[in-house]
Amino acid sequence: MVTNGLSIGFGLLFLASLTGQAFSGLAYFNEQQMAANLEPVGFWQYVTSSSFAVDVSENWQSEYLQFFLLIILAVWLVQKGSPESKEIEKRGLESDKDQMIGQYAEDDSPAWAKAGGWKTVVFSNSLGLVMGTIFVLSWLAQSVAGFTAYAQEQLENLQDPGSWTEYIVSPEFWNRTLQNWQSEFLAVWSMVALSIFLRQRGSPESKPVGEAHDATGVQG
After folding, report:
1. How far apart are the two ends of the chain, measured CA to CA in Å?
2. Interatomic CA distance for residues 117 and 109, integer angstroms
């Protein structure tokens, strides 16, 4: 329990917040239904609806885009003084020796780090690949669920909903999408910049309290 506390803690927070979103979203949705003189819906009907799906997926895709870009860009881009950056002289892919792959792998290194060839290439980029794949899938889920909800609203108003391809280039879709993206980019920028000068004792996201402001790639 202690050694997995961080993943368990955030997993429970995720489930709690998702459950809270489901119940509060249901209440808000039914308020709108009654205001339009329509029948309220039940919990299961709501959480399987396109309305709930688009709200969830648009948050997921922006979060995974944030992490995907941070993982990839941090290979080449560095920030002097930030613990979110690696040391400036290590900018780039680094050597096989530094990364402990192939002939430089250690006894307890993962098997694919030792294997060489395509297995090591894939494993060397597996985190970015998985994060990028989840982003693309959640973005597609958002676009499909968003179009379904939009089409339903248009049909209720006796208007032509158009096609999915028309929807994903529409101002409504990109307004929702970019609202989430800009907040994620701001959060990462704030973390990178503020962690240069501010500290949180005991946190690996911060430098040690007494570390110099210009120390880079150092975590507490």
Report:
1. 22
2. 16
Q: How open is the CA angle 79-184-11, to the nearest 5 degrees?
A: 105
CA quadruple 126, 127, 133, 139: dihedral, nearest 10: -170
Q: What is the DSSP letter of 211?
A: S
Query: Cα–Cα distance between 145 and 168 in angstroms, integer?
Result: 11
Instruction: Count Cβ atoms within 10 A of the Cβ of residue 7 and give its class: 0-12 exposed, 13-18 middle, 19 or more buried.
Output: exposed
50-76 and 171-197 helices cross at what angle (nearest 10)? 40
Q: Backbone dihedral region of 94: left (phi > 0), alpha (psi from -120 to 50 degrees) or beta?
A: left
Rounded Cα distance, 205 and 212, in Å = 15
- pLDDT of the chain along its 220 residues, tens only? 778 998 999 999 999 999 999 999 999 999 988 887 888 999 999 999 988 998 899 889 999 999 999 999 999 999 999 988 888 888 999 999 999 998 998 989 999 999 989 999 999 999 999 999 999 999 999 999 988 888 887 777 777 878 898 889 998 889 889 988 999 999 999 999 999 999 998 888 888 899 899 888 877 6
